[in-house]
Amino acid sequence: MSQISTKEQILKFKDYADIADASYAMLHWVSENEKTS
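Below the sequence we write its predicted structure tokens.
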């Protein structure tokens, strides 16, 4: 396994968190729209 700096790990983790947050928001939006339509 290649060595990855702590800073890089944190940046990757933040990217994953942003992606997860965006997909959760999208899922929430989709389910809200299904209720109203």
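The two ends are 49 Å apart (CA to CA).
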